[in-house]
Fold these 2 entries.
Entry 1:
Amino acid sequence: MNKSKKRLETLVLHGGYEPEATTGATTPTIFQSTSFAYKTAEALESVFAGREVGYIYSRIGNPTVTLLERRVYALEEGLGAVACASGMSAITATILALAGSGDEILSGNSIFGGTYSLFQQTLSRYGITVRFVESTDIDAYRKNVTPRTKAIFVETIGNPKLDVPDIEAISMVAREHGIVLVVDNTVTTPILFKPKIYGANIVIHSASKFINGHGNTIGGIILDCGTFDWNNSRYQHLQNMYKSFGEMTFLAYVRSQICRDLGLCLSPFNAFLLATGIETLALRMERHCSNALYLAKKLKKHPKICELRYPGLEDHPNHIVATRQFHGRYGGLLTLTLENREQCFRFINGLELIQNLANLGDAKTLVIHPASTFCRDLSEEQRRAVGVTESLVRLSIGIEHPDDILEDIENSLTKL
Ligand SMILES: *Cc1c(COP(=O)(O)O)cnc(C)c1O
């Protein structure tokens, strides 16, 4: 059976796995083993030398983790993938594989708070400067490229601003200068959007969110789309590796240098949970999107809501780009602006079904007040960039019956 010809809804279930040879088990085996034994010293030497393919030590690779990597890169039509302990470690590994002290990263400003902090606070201490530009302003990317720029970084839907950059237009800027375009596809997933088709080179996921779908583990994935020629003098540090690895250069460097040295590995048990969670991704995404659109339309004119933001509504500033990129589906995130912080807290406290917690992409509907939680460390200017005010509430719409979600929201709004 040629699985590569199968559609996404099928690949999430069958991609990257055959029933296990000795027992026929239909769910993946959890290879809960640190190391892998070889019969002879010569055989182990061959694997260390790269002459033979094989597992050595689970910090570098593990068969259960490989299954998850295969499943995700089948969906993204990538060249290969490296799974990491978290979305943040996937982003860290990617940036450290591309840039070093003295280099620059060009990033959209409307990005996940943890990534903002990594870029702004942590990387700067190690000599990597991140220039932030308005995420949807294509000219701003062009104007801020320098000879030291090693990556352009964007998210598909800014969180919690919910702006939608034109990835294809940004990819042209990256291509003009021979710079790697890294796209964080966490909130859209390959079900809504395949960054490769729009010119991305590297795709990142926080697998903790929609890929997992059940809020039971943290994980991250890095994919190489196979669209960047690594034989490129901007990336001097990769040129030695290029001679042996060719198109696999980036992935080899990430796995056998960065992830090996920093210990960013995903555990086999967490890989198992992610590989199982992903099986329902296509079905869940359909429902997240249809529920969110339904709620956005129903609540848009609610007298207690000052502003409702959802890329699926025609008055959203990036609605046209979103429609073109995501083929008429707009994800599970929507935001409400209420009168002030106190009203937001009262709204959250009045919800019964919807859970107040720091996560998104769970099958259950979630709510959070960004300004007092994951954006609390941002400066006033940074908050403006990521679109956060004291009056903003973010909802991650789940897959429950939409009228139950609606009732919970309406009941709480009525009590304000
Ligand atoms: C959550 C998130 C991350 C970080 O992922 P973790 O798995 O929590 O480390 C990165 N990017 C986006 C868009 C996210 O939502």
Entry 2:
Amino acid sequence: MNVPFLDLSIQHRLIKDELDRVFDEIIGTTAFIQGEQVERFEREFADYVHSRHAIGVANGTDALHLSLRACGIGPGDEVITAANTFIATTEAISAVGATIVLVDMDPVSYTIDPAKIEASITPRTKAIIPVHLYGQPADMAAIMDIADRHGLLVVEDACQAHGARYGEKRVGTIGAVGCFSCYPGKNLGAYGDAGIIVTDDDAIADRIRLLANHGSRKKYEHEIEGWNSRLDTLQAAVLRLKLKHLDHWNVERQEIARRYTEALAGSGVRPPSIVHGDHVWHLYVVETPDRVALSAALSDQGIATAVHYPVPLHLHAAYRELGYPAGSFPVSERAAGRILSLPMYPGMTPEQVDHVAAAIRQATTIVAAA
Ligand SMILES: *Cc1c(COP(=O)(O)O)cnc(C)c1O
């Protein structure tokens, strides 16, 4: 039995007929930029997360970058985020000329450790970017409390957690601004690059809209110097159709996660834990003392795996100048050597989950015996 890491064709089959019709319509009118599909998706996504505004942008990296810019973050400001995130989070900080300040993660939730945020705050700190990594909300109660006490802005990186609930809210609507990527493999994925920003703040929303469209409200009138980061019209059409399925796809992910966790009890790997709010399982990440052997054994059984992420940000050549030597973030560093992401996608069958779990049990027995 083959188990791919991800199979997007299952999602496509559900929307294909309607999508063919909408694509024909858009292509027939040759109106490829902005328009009704984008406006409707923005409204539908805002309603879905219960925020006042949603602004479509070109990708999740731009969502973060333009949010920071719209909030006035710039040179001389420090922005705190987790050492174990994807580089897009920190690229956005550098893009506005601010300084990246990294903090270690919590070893159980894999999200930023609030106790360590507090210790990293200086008079220059302006914002915190919690990342809802793997689909699990960060410890937002603690983070919002720290932010309130120190007058800091919270910009949520919800790029892996579309639809996750935290208390009464959906992630992205707890801080001042929430950023989503709709990269194809994300929980709400387009057929190319796409992103969306949500906020309840009218002024921030207005500023983001201006920035994302060349600083212009009216064609060829530029109020400020902006950027080109619009949500593509064809992608908006895909996202509108997929948004209708997001909740049931997330429930499917939760069922798959539950089945994995049950089947892996007592095996040689540590299954992930649900710590804050509900988890929408963008990734199902286990820890194992011998990742190389385990991923090879799974590959031999036709099972694809991945690692998110093999190297914490501070140990990349790109960030040598930040001056964090190895050992700076021991929790992230230790986890980076042990984590393994298992196949996880809506449409994955119970038989496939059982096959992966059985292969893990078999492989970890062999590794332990060797
Ligand atoms: C995917 C992702 C991004 C960036 O999104 P793109 O759409 O690829 O630019 C940012 N942060 C995290 C945590 C992500 O997973």
